[in-house]
Amino acid sequence: MKISKKDALMWFNFFAQLPDDEPLMNYQQEIVYAVLSQIELAEEARQQKLMSEIKNLKSLAGRTYFVGKEENFPAGCRSCLTGTGLSAIRKTNKCNIQCKFCYNYGELNCIPPIGEGMWEIGGSKYRVEDIDLLLSVCNKPTGISYVYLEPFMEIEKYYKVVKKFSAAGIHQHMYTNGLNCTEENLKALGEAGLDELRFNLGGTNCADKVIENMAIAKKYIPRIGIETPMTPDFFEQFFQKKEKIFAIGFDFINCAELHLNRNNIGNYEGEPMYMARHGYVSPIWSRELTLKFMKIADEEQWPIVVHDCSNRTKFARDLNLRAKEGGWFGASNYGCEFDTTPYEAFLPTLEDPDFHFVEEEELPEGYRPGDVSLMF
Fold first, then answer.
1. Could you tell me the residue ranges of all domains in the chain?
2. Which residues pair with 347 in a beta bridge?
3. Do residues 251 and 218 touch, judged by C-beta distance below 8 A?
4. Tell me: the pLDDT tens digits for 110-156?
5. Which residues contact 144 (CB under 8 A, 6 or more apart)?
6. Is it true that domain 55-341 has CATH number 3.40.190.80?
7. d(CA 125, CA 141)
8. Which helix (H) or strand (E) holds 376?
9. Which runs of consecutive H residues, i.e. helices, occur in 108-204?
């Protein structure tokens, strides 16, 4: 059903007024899926046009896109997409800033602790002395990452764990907003064996202090990168400080497509959205800005890799992980982070006169408002 934009807006206005706990009838659910498909197809067409304008766009095994030399593609992302997946290690449940794009926005003070002396690895709890046992029993991952929330809130606890995995020859990368970095702790991380440190520059509005800390990190850690959800603010701030940032001599930028949940979607109220494969909900400008960013990088021949970490990339990431775990054909945990479709979030897209569906047709009999009685 290639529902028209006019009919899509009419129906989603209706669905947005229903109580959250009111289930839809089957024909109504068909309409919802038709609308989401039309929006996604239209957005994909816009993205494809932007991609066609990037002369030297490259692909990693058909799973993601980037510009720059393939040998400079971040090893942590390669592990995530072609290795044994993104093996996350969690420790710190606190952060020193609150970013509007954070998935834990508004609940940072109530994130449960991992536990004194404990580390969450693969969803289970371990002490440092358990890691040798873990490595002797389980298949060794191609890479691990330190996430959740800001590790530099208690970075001194991380050194022993980093040393353990470094000795085992496992690639390790870590995320930080960079505010609490010092020469001392960056040197200690490098000596412990951390392979990559990724700075969320968007979290601090490309703060000078963080840029300076990135330069210090480059002295001690082999690979330094930027990983930030792509927003209009980051796009603008990066180019305002581009020369200062490039003076660091860093290695890559991962432009993450911003996806939203119940915690942070209110910070983007009124922005046009789309849903990717019935899963992540994202502002339509996020990946479009990434592709424009990559075009500039390609034309100016930046000496780094710029990676399009899009919803499609995350879709591929989960497929790869399930396959490596021995999952059945098509197995994936990728899905929507909302309990019910947030109809109101798509109204700005449907109201945007510059957003056009690729193909439209009249609703079939039984799906028009006046035909509702025919469905019973």
1. 1-52, 55-341
2. none
3. no
4. 999 999 999 999 999 999 999 999 999 999 999 999 998 999 999 99
5. 87, 88, 89, 165, 170, 171, 172, 173
6. no
7. 17
8. none
9. 131-137, 159-167, 183-192
